[in-house]
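Lecture notes, unit on protein representations.

Consider one protein chain, 153 amino acids long.
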Amino acid sequence: MDSSQPSKLNLKVLEMTNDQPKRLIARLDVKSENLIKGVHLEGLRVIGDPQDFAMQYYDEGADEIIYLDIVASLYGRSNLLEIVRKTAQNIFIPLTVGGGVRNLDDVSHLLKAGADKVAAPAIPAATPTPALVIKSLRFIKNSHLNNLVHIYV
Protein backbone atom coordinates (compact mmCIF):
# COMPACT_ATOMS: atom_id res chain seq x y z
CA MET A 1 0.00 0.00 0.00
CA ASP A 2 1.18 3.50 -0.76
CA SER A 3 2.05 5.03 2.61
CA SER A 4 1.17 8.55 1.45
CA GLN A 5 -2.57 7.81 1.16
CA PRO A 6 -4.65 5.45 3.29
CA SER A 7 -6.77 3.01 1.37
CA LYS A 8 -10.53 2.92 1.84
CA LEU A 9 -11.18 1.23 5.15
CA ASN A 10 -14.79 0.24 4.39
CA LEU A 11 -15.93 0.22 7.99
CA LYS A 12 -19.27 -1.45 8.52
CA VAL A 13 -21.14 -2.02 11.74
CA LEU A 14 -22.25 -5.63 11.94
CA GLU A 15 -25.73 -6.49 13.13
CA MET A 16 -25.93 -7.95 16.59
CA THR A 17 -28.41 -10.65 17.49
CA ASN A 18 -29.08 -9.20 20.95
CA ASP A 19 -29.91 -5.70 19.61
CA GLN A 20 -27.20 -3.99 21.62
CA PRO A 21 -25.37 -1.19 19.86
CA LYS A 22 -21.89 -1.99 18.67
CA ARG A 23 -19.02 0.47 18.95
CA LEU A 24 -16.19 0.56 16.47
CA ILE A 25 -12.91 1.48 18.16
CA ALA A 26 -9.92 1.85 15.86
CA ARG A 27 -6.58 1.02 17.47
CA LEU A 28 -3.63 2.60 15.69
CA ASP A 29 -0.14 1.45 16.66
CA VAL A 30 2.45 4.19 16.45
CA LYS A 31 6.23 4.12 16.52
CA SER A 32 7.93 7.48 16.47
CA GLU A 33 5.74 9.59 14.15
CA ASN A 34 4.63 6.67 11.95
CA LEU A 35 1.65 4.36 11.91
CA ILE A 36 2.94 0.80 11.92
CA LYS A 37 1.64 -2.70 11.39
CA GLY A 38 3.04 -5.94 12.72
CA VAL A 39 4.09 -8.40 10.03
CA HIS A 40 3.70 -12.08 10.92
CA LEU A 41 4.25 -11.28 14.61
CA GLU A 42 7.92 -10.58 13.91
CA GLY A 43 8.58 -7.23 12.33
CA LEU A 44 7.02 -3.82 12.08
CA ARG A 45 6.23 -2.08 8.82
CA VAL A 46 5.50 1.63 8.40
CA ILE A 47 2.14 2.06 6.70
CA GLY A 48 1.61 5.80 6.85
CA ASP A 49 0.69 8.90 8.76
CA PRO A 50 -1.40 8.26 11.91
CA GLN A 51 -3.48 11.42 11.41
CA ASP A 52 -4.49 10.37 7.89
CA PHE A 53 -5.71 6.99 9.09
CA ALA A 54 -7.47 8.48 12.14
CA MET A 55 -9.27 10.93 9.85
CA GLN A 56 -10.28 8.11 7.51
CA TYR A 57 -11.67 6.08 10.42
CA TYR A 58 -13.50 9.17 11.70
CA ASP A 59 -14.98 9.91 8.25
CA GLU A 60 -16.18 6.31 7.94
CA GLY A 61 -17.95 6.27 11.29
CA ALA A 62 -15.54 5.01 13.95
CA ASP A 63 -16.73 5.69 17.50
CA GLU A 64 -13.28 6.11 19.05
CA ILE A 65 -9.59 6.21 18.12
CA ILE A 66 -6.85 4.66 20.23
CA TYR A 67 -3.23 5.61 19.62
CA LEU A 68 -0.69 3.29 21.22
CA ASP A 69 3.03 3.91 20.98
CA ILE A 70 3.88 0.26 21.36
CA VAL A 71 7.61 0.72 22.00
CA ALA A 72 7.57 3.97 23.99
CA SER A 73 8.10 2.29 27.35
CA LEU A 74 10.93 0.21 25.94
CA TYR A 75 12.78 3.34 24.81
CA GLY A 76 11.61 5.54 27.70
CA ARG A 77 9.98 8.13 25.49
CA SER A 78 6.62 9.68 24.72
CA ASN A 79 6.30 10.95 21.15
CA LEU A 80 2.53 11.20 20.88
CA LEU A 81 1.96 14.81 21.91
CA GLU A 82 2.16 16.35 18.45
CA ILE A 83 0.22 13.47 16.86
CA VAL A 84 -2.53 13.90 19.46
CA ARG A 85 -2.57 17.68 19.05
CA LYS A 86 -2.98 17.46 15.27
CA THR A 87 -5.54 14.66 15.43
CA ALA A 88 -7.68 16.37 18.09
CA GLN A 89 -8.07 19.40 15.79
CA ASN A 90 -9.75 17.28 13.11
CA ILE A 91 -11.70 14.48 14.74
CA PHE A 92 -14.53 14.80 17.23
CA ILE A 93 -14.82 11.36 18.78
CA PRO A 94 -13.06 10.07 21.90
CA LEU A 95 -9.29 9.82 21.52
CA THR A 96 -7.44 7.45 23.84
CA VAL A 97 -3.66 7.56 24.03
CA GLY A 98 -1.17 5.15 25.57
CA GLY A 99 2.49 4.29 25.55
CA GLY A 100 5.29 6.00 27.39
CA VAL A 101 3.02 7.30 30.15
CA ARG A 102 5.40 7.41 33.11
CA ASN A 103 4.19 10.18 35.39
CA LEU A 104 1.50 12.73 36.07
CA ASP A 105 3.11 15.28 33.77
CA ASP A 106 2.78 12.84 30.86
CA VAL A 107 -0.92 12.37 31.66
CA SER A 108 -1.45 16.12 31.97
CA HIS A 109 0.34 16.93 28.70
CA LEU A 110 -1.60 14.29 26.76
CA LEU A 111 -4.94 15.50 28.12
CA LYS A 112 -4.08 19.12 27.37
CA ALA A 113 -2.99 18.13 23.85
CA GLY A 114 -6.49 16.79 23.20
CA ALA A 115 -6.63 13.21 24.43
CA ASP A 116 -9.93 12.28 26.03
CA LYS A 117 -8.48 9.29 27.86
CA VAL A 118 -4.99 8.12 28.77
CA ALA A 119 -4.08 4.45 28.96
CA ALA A 120 -1.41 3.70 31.53
CA PRO A 121 0.07 0.28 32.26
CA ALA A 122 -1.35 -1.50 35.31
CA ILE A 123 1.68 -3.72 35.73
CA PRO A 124 3.77 -2.18 38.54
CA ALA A 125 7.04 -3.23 36.90
CA ALA A 126 6.08 -1.30 33.77
CA THR A 127 5.18 1.83 35.72
CA PRO A 128 8.08 3.59 37.44
CA THR A 129 5.60 5.26 39.81
CA PRO A 130 2.79 2.83 40.75
CA ALA A 131 0.94 5.71 42.46
CA LEU A 132 0.52 7.35 39.03
CA VAL A 133 -3.09 6.19 38.81
CA ILE A 134 -4.13 7.68 42.15
CA LYS A 135 -2.27 10.92 41.48
CA SER A 136 -3.85 11.13 38.02
CA LEU A 137 -7.34 10.65 39.38
CA ARG A 138 -6.76 13.33 42.03
CA PHE A 139 -5.35 15.69 39.39
CA ILE A 140 -8.34 15.16 37.13
CA LYS A 141 -10.82 15.50 40.01
CA ASN A 142 -9.22 18.80 41.04
CA SER A 143 -8.98 20.20 37.52
CA HIS A 144 -11.56 21.27 35.01
CA LEU A 145 -10.76 18.25 32.87
CA ASN A 146 -13.45 15.59 32.81
CA ASN A 147 -11.08 12.92 31.58
CA LEU A 148 -10.36 9.48 32.91
CA VAL A 149 -7.18 7.49 33.12
CA HIS A 150 -7.90 3.94 31.98
CA ILE A 151 -5.84 1.04 33.23
CA TYR A 152 -5.28 -1.84 30.83
CA VAL A 153 -3.74 -5.11 31.95
